[in-house]
UniProtKB/TrEMBL annotation:
Domain of life: Eukaryota
Major localisation: membrane
Membrane topology according to the record: Multi-pass membrane protein
The protein's name: RTA1 like protein
Compartments in which it is found: Membrane
Length: 264
């Protein structure tokens, strides 16, 4: 008898949900790409498009695994559903870094310099990404499950720590009137534009934090544990949290506040 999905998932995954998720993220990617092109927004905003596409690929791999499970496909699925949200953190870091850079404020502290905000948090994101990808790959092998689990936990813990530090920096930038944001359509003042941008960052970072805490608890509980087997929790705290982030990015689209023509 050949392998079945439950051999790897340790439960029988629901059908229909991954198909819906894959389609939803593909639509999200197309909508954001259209918004970026229409607004002539900064090219780094395509981070959102790439992340949505990667999420869609992850759910497509989940569909394939449900029907034709293979170890390589299962590992790829784990990585595509675990890693892309790191890019959403990078997007938020970039937004705050650009707010600081375009405001031309002489930084009183080194951690309020645009390059520091972008590259320090980018480096932490890459480090966390590498740990999570390594641990995620190892967890599908029986002999390496325990080691892989702890590597993933460390990677997620590092991400949570740096997200907390980033929240502090974002709050400082938000509250300091020296940092301004260019007005977009129907934004009557720079103060309104800044409030819109910064609250988008605060809310999406909080959602990412919830998702990362869920993933941390899931890995701590272990492969095949009660949390891992609770598929509804995955769709609520992973799919749901990430989808809400994208809804925020679409509804409160920031491309008008960061036009391409002003990039130097």
């Amino acid at each position: 008898m050949g392998e079945v999905a439950s051999d790897y998932f340790t439960y029988t995954p629901v059908r229909g949900a991954p198909e819906t998720a894959a389609a939803v993220f593909l639509v999200v990617a197309l909508v954001i790409a259209y918004q970026i092109v229409r607004a002539r927004a900064a090219r780094w905003m395509y981070i959102l498009v790439g992340t949505a596409v990667a999420e869609s690929v992850g759910y497509i791999l989940r569909i394939v695994c449900i029907n034709h499970i293979r170890l390589g496909l299962y590992i790829a699925m784990i990585l595509f559903l675990l890693l892309p949200p790191n890019a959403l953190a990078l997007y938020n870091y970039k937004v705050v870094g650009e707010v600081v850079r375009r405001s031309n404020v002489r930084a009183r502290r080194f951690w309020l310099k645009a390059k520091f905000i972008t590259w320090f948090f980018f480096a932490s994101d890459v480090f966390s990404f590498m740990l999570q990808s390594t641990g995620g790959s190892m967890m599908s092998h029986d002999s390496l499950q325990k080691t892989g689990k702890w590597i993933c936990i460390v990677g997620l813990a590092i991400q949570l720590v740096f997200l907390a530090v980033f929240v502090f920096v974002a709050i400082v930038v938000h509250r300091d009137p020296q940092y301004i944001v260019a007005c977009g359509p129907r934004q009557v003042s720079e103060a309104v534009a800044k409030r819109r941008v910064m609250w988008t960052i605060h809310v999406t970072t909080a959602l990412l934090y919830v998702r990362s805490v869920y993933r941390l608890i899931e890995f701590a509980d272990g492969y095949g544990g009660s949390i891992y087997k609770a598929e509804w929790a995955f769709y609520v705290f992973d799919f749901g949290a990430i989808l809400l982030m994208f809804v925020m990015y679409i509804v409160f689209f920031l491309g008008h506040n960061f036009p391409r023509k002003t990039i130097v």
